[in-house]
Amino acid sequence: MSNHSASVREPLILGDKTYHQITEDIAQPIEGKANGLFKILFTISALLALWGVACFAYTIGTGIGVWGLNKTVGWAWDITNFVWWVGIGHAGTLISAILLLFRQRWRMSINRSAEAMTIFAVICAALFPVMHMGRVWMAYWVLPLPNTFGSLWVNFNSPLLWDVFAISTYFTVSLVFWYTGLIPDFATIRDRQVKPRMKKIYSILSFGWSGSAKQWSRFEEVSLVLAGLSTPLVLSVHTIVSMDFATSVIPGWHTTIFPPYFVAGAIFSGFAMVLTLLIIMRKVLHLEDYITIAHVESMNKIIIITGSIVGVAYLTELFVSWYSGVEYEQYAFLNRATGPYWWSYWSMMTCNVITPQLFWFKKIRKSLLATFIISIFVNIGMWFERFVIIVTSLHRDYLPSSWTMFHPTFIDIGIFLGTIGIFFTLFLLFSRTFPVIALNELKTILKSTSENPKPPHH
Amino acid sequence: MSKQIIYGVFDDEEVLISSAKALRGQGVKIRDVFSPFPIHGLDPVIGIKPTRLSNAAFFYGMFGTSMAVLMTWYMMIHDWPMNVGGKPSFSWFQNMPAFIPVTFELTVFCAAHGMVLSYLLVNKIYPGRKAHNPDPRSTDDKFIMEIQTADNKKVAGSEIISVLRNTGAIEINQKEL
Q1: Read out DSSP for B29-66?
Q2: Which of A5, A92, A350, A372 is most buried, with most CB under 10 Å away?
């Protein structure tokens, strides 16, 4: 049996596993009963989600005047949350698409749940621009449809319209990519059910997959091409999100560094969220043998790289604003660091630039507790990054008489917490009904990366 | 001779490949293989041609590109040219930079969805379809080779079974057609 790489690299599957044991382990959360911890987490998330829905309803009924926005700060928490959630989604696509192209086998235990996270995060993100339209029942106006006033079309010069195309393409393509991978795993779940109701549900979900040689050959081709398409797609999405800012003439926004800086930041925050979720999930669902310290360490290495790119981008922005000699630009950055929002700027700097550097120490990189805490720091830091970019650039207008501060209302806060609730509710439902690990894909690497590869007995 | 299907059940994909090679060496035609995961290197052995789905994806992508070019030209240049920020819409080429993002997104959109729809279509998988794998264990840990005696006029069924047995099949099942 080929066991060539196990001596060089750490095993990615621990314990004595067989193909059948992998199926058993991944099917167990679906077939078993929910434990107390799950019920508590689900109740909290569902209540938060309901609270968010109530705030949404209030906003739709009354108008976006219930948010803390004012004439000067016309974009604040809503767009901050939008960019934050889209960014979080990026890690899922990076893991499933880019790491597939680079043939990184450690992606296999985490890609399914990371992609689920992508889809749920993009759902949360999309709520914000739609809500910000105010009259949400007219959301279809963003589509290029002829209207009753004559043939006035949508404006294809506007980055906001590019965003409509980017986010909808990203969401739907991520969804079909995820589902294509799920079909064979649903078939595995289907074929082991004894209760007729479960068998019925999973046989519908598995689309009648039988796993014939031709089906697998097409499956591999589709996975590869979808990965190839998703790779430039994921880079384009945050590039276009950054252009919402970069193509404007607001000091602090009008910079060419934005696209790569936003993409790096997105991956950075996404990996932090993947770690936050997986460190809990592996414990609750007993998947320690599949999501190992080696997986956590690999993800932490990506956090160091992307965190350092983000750090360099912050410093480059500062340097260029000074070097440009444009006083508005210089003031915008001076104001960020020393103005009334200094606390948000320094929270961002601490969480995003300093904390991830701790991962240079192997001990910290391999510690679950430290990783969990740092991942929370990064999540917070990246939220502050978007807040700093959006609010500090807007609150000092060109006219000093317009200068103001932004104060979130309880509706702003409620909607944000509500999306966190929606996100976790969806993720928890996913973790008990879907195979959370791409179990059949994982079987392909069992022989070469398990701790004790067992030759089959005859 | 009655027509029958012979199922060779294996518990290791590498053993199945060497068994398939032995059978092919004797001129036996293998109808299909059902496995829990893709077996690399099996397709050429049992005579499966590479899929052309990626070619289809390329054409779907080209279709998306053309639709995007046509749409931006029609809406922004031809039907209702708008002067936004002192940058009038003269011709598609002069305004092209602003249309790149949408063109790119529509290309990816059409290529990805077109390919997945074709994939579902040619694989004949859709919600409500009944699975036709011969044994439920084939999506768990067993690899099942399907041979039909109707495909193999020259080799006797009993001979196929003895080759399967000698090359590592853990179980052999026969079904009369």
Answers
A1: PP-EEE-SS--TTHHHHHTPPPP-HHHHHHHHHHHHHH
A2: A92
Calculate mean pLDDT across residues A58-76. 91
Of B34, B54, B113, the CB nearest to A210: B34
- Rounded-to-integer distance, Cα A95 and Cα A108, Å: 9
Find the CB nearest B131 among A20, A209, A236.
A209
Residue B151: pLDDT band (50, 70, 90) is confident
- Residue ranges of B 29-48 with Cβ closer than 8 A to chain A: 32-40, 42-43, 46, 48
Cβ of A173 within 8 Å of Cβ of B119? The answer is no
User: What is the interface pTM, i.e. ipTM, of the complex?
Assistant: 0.92
pLDDT for B167: 87
Q: Which amino acid is located at A321 in the chain?
A: S
Q: Domain B4-48+133-176 classified CATH 1.10.10? A: no
- Nearest CB partner across the interface for A221, out of B53, B87, B125: B53
pTM of the model: 0.91
Number of domains making up chain A: 1
Alpha-carbon distance A198 to nearest alpha carbon in chain B (angstroms):
14
User: Which residues constitute the domain of residue A79?
Assistant: 19-136+181-449
